[in-house]
Design brief:
heterodimer; A: mainly beta; seven-stranded mixed beta sheet; 0% helix; 50% strand; B: 0% helix; 52% strand
Amino acid sequence: DIQMTQSPASLSASLGETVTIECRASEDIYNGLAWYQQKPGKSPQLLIYNANSLHTGVPSRFSGSGSGTQYSLKINSLQSEDVASYFCQQYYDYPWTFGGGTKLELK
Amino acid sequence: EVKLQQSGDELVRPGASVKMSCKASGYTFTDYAMHWVKQSPGQGLEWIGTIIPLIDTTSYNQKFKGKATLTADKSSNTAYMELSRLTSEDSAVYYCARRGGIGTTSNWFAYWGQGTLVTVSS
């Protein structure tokens, strides 16, 4: 199975700040990567797919980048509604696997 | 608007089975595969399997073979997952999630149900 390692596991940032979350795959996943946001008590919501494509309705302050085994999610100008957990997922090879998550809090 | 409505939370005895549903609306049910995902505090998010309703084809994470059975009813636009021989390890929230695109490589999870909490306890 492809292992997905996210960092950091938790993050504290101020409103307006730019935040970056990293995801490393155990092998090349050829941009088969998605990012999700999950707020407490809610289901995950898709933010980014194909490493850098923004899902419909997602604010443009979210962006994804990377290639090979290294990917990142950037949130520009952090808003209060961005407080959530974030997960990466690879869909290059079976079984599809997720990162362990990053919990983002306000400083 | 795409919507996935899952059945209610379940409290089940160890050794029993449970079957949960996921009713889809807002798109053509047979155009997209449906994934199922487990979320538990200890194991995070895990992909269980996928069903293609158009041709009733399933694929499973090896870890969940024999544990989960996926089916779909095209007449009611509903996907189902049955979990068998339940233990405490199966206590979790289970989500259905629609495949992102029509293509077979579009295996991101574009839309999610609200989740079904399964608690296994005597």
